[in-house]
């Protein structure tokens, strides 16, 4: 059966990384639920004939049939009939089906050990139900698969699981892996259908969630004018450009990832994010090495640095870097970066960034404070420091 590149990426992660909890979140019709279904079936089949228990959860029984069981019947080639306990046999195991939207739904999942679960519409499930199902999956090698459309960034599914993407267990097994889907990831959709959906979807929050799969509050994503098809270029395309100047942005971090981004301007005045270096739990010695390596390739360029760690800036200067205190004006800096995206004057070399791909979709406004939510902003902060500080003098000169 044919899969989209995004679905193949998910399958490869399961095959090579073996995450205990797998989350697929994003736009409607993006292909999340289908690949989740295939992976759940493969997981159950792995224990064929062992008589183990598995869980399928959804908001209501009707939504479970509509979103999961109808398609499951097509894949396995037979009719599914639930018994009095809302369960059915599959590959010599028992699948229990629970609706999980109510505050007391978690009680249905009590009392047995499961070897895996598939939770559909994660944001429509009660948080206690999700936690109870995960706690039930205590059999060795158990996997929990959750698919969901996005909601408010403060939703427990995002904060408790998606935001912990990459979390490891003491055994060395990957605990949580999260994937983000957009409508455009489903390459099998009719282009006319996609065009119609985009044209008829309201701007702001609805477009953010339904088209781009962003976890956005009512005020929406911060960089609304960023689009994969417009702003990403390849390394091969970048090599053909004539860059006339380079500079870098630095956001210090330890518990949250630190980052250094390399930025360039071409002879047409367009700006490019050429590469990112983002890593967690690294000391200043590591970032000095990164900066020295960048300097060896691009010369004595400016490094616009986060002023939160003046001792790190001093260290950079002592090591021969031209480290400059960044102007960290939040709203003005975001406005400048957003303006460049809007004008299509800021591009990103897609194969040279990784964390940026997540942050650009996760970076949203706090609808209460009007400030950006302080998550998924490490690379984007470095970009903001570099672009706003570097371009501010030019803006003053040109009025």
Overview in brief:
By secondary structure, this protein is an alpha/beta fold.
Explained architecture:
The protein is elongated, with a radius of gyration of 23 Å. It has helices spanning 5-17, 32-46, 61-76, 127-136, 156-160, 191-200, 205-210, 228-231, 235-239, 284-298, 310-318, 330-342, 355-362, 378-398; strands spanning 21-26, 53-58, 87-90, 93-99, 116-119, 143-148, 176-181, 232-233, 243-251, 258-266, 271-279, 302-305, 322-325, 346-349. The chain has a seven-stranded mixed sheet, with helices on both faces. Helix 2 packs across helix 3 and helix 12 crosses helix 14 (378-398). The mean pLDDT is 92. The protein contains 14 helices and 14 strands. Strand 9 and strand 10 form a beta hairpin. It folds into two domains: 5-185, Rossmann fold (3-Layer(aba) Sandwich), CATH 3.40.50; 228-398, Nucleotidyltransferase, domain 5 (2-Layer Sandwich), CATH 3.30.420.280. The protein is an alpha/beta fold and 399 residues long.
List the helices and strands and how they pair.
Elements (H helix, E strand, L loop, with lengths): L4 H13 L3 E6 L5 H15 L6 E6 L2 H16 L10 E4 L2 E7 L16 E4 L7 H10 L6 E6 L7 H5 L15 E6 L9 H10 L4 H6 L17 H4 E2 L1 H5 L3 E9 L6 E9 L4 E9 L4 H15 L3 E4 L4 H9 L3 E4 L4 H13 L3 E4 L5 H8 L15 H21 L1
Parallel strand pairs: 1-6, 1-7, 2-4, 2-5, 5-6, 8-14, 9-12, 11-14, 12-13
Antiparallel strand pairs: 3-4, 9-10, 10-11
């Amino acid at each position: 059966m044919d899969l989209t590149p995004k679905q193949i990426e998910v399958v490869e992660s399961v095959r090579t990384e073996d995450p205990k909890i797998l989350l697929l979140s994003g736009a409607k019709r993006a292909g999340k639920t289908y690949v989740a279904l295939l992976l759940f079936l493969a997981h159950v089949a792995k224990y064929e004939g062992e008589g183990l228990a598995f869980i399928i959860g959804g908001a209501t029984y009707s939504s479970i049939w509509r979103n999961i069981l109808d398609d499951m019947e097509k894949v396995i080639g037979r009719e599914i009939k639930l018994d009095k306990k809302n369960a059915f046999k599959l590959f010599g195991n028992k699948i229990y089906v629970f609706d999980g939207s109510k505050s007391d739904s978690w009680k249905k999942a009590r009392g047995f050990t499961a070897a895996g679960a598939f939770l559909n519409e994660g944001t429509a499930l009660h948080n206690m139900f999700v936690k109870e199902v995960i706690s039930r999956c205590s059999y060795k090698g158990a996997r929990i698969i959750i698919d969901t459309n996005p909601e408010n960034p403060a939703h427990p599914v995002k904060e408790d699981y998606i935001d912990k993407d990459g979390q490891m267990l003491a055994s060395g097994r990957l605990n949580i892996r999260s994937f983000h889907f957009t409508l455009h990831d489903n390459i099998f959709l009719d282009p006319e259908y996609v065009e119609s959906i985009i044209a008829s979807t309201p701007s702001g929050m609805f477009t953010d969630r339904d088209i781009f799969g962003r976890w956005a509050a009512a005020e929406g994503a911060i960089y609304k004018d960023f689009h994969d098809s417009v702003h990403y270029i390849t390394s091969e395309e970048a090599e053909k450009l004539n860059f006339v100047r380079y500079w870098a942005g630095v956001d210090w971090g330890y518990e949250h990832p630190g980052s250094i981004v390399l930025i360039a301007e071409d002879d047409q005045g367009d700006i490019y994010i050429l590469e990112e270096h983002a890593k967690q739990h690294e000391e200043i010695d590591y970032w000095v090495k990164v900066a020295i390596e960048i300097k060896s390739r691009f010369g004595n360029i400016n490094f616009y640095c986060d002023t939160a760690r003046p001792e790190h800036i001093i260290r950079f200067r002592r090591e021969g870097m031209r480290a400059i205190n960044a102007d960290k004006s939040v709203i003005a800096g975001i406005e400048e970066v957003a303006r460049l995206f809007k004008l299509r004057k800021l591009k990103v070399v897609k194969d040279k960034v990784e964390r940026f791909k997540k942050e650009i979709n996760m970076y949203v406004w706090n609808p209460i404070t009007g400030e950006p939510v302080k998550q998924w902003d490490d690379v984007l902060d470095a970009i903001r420091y570099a672009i706003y500080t570097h371009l501010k003098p030019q803006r003053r000169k040109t009025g």
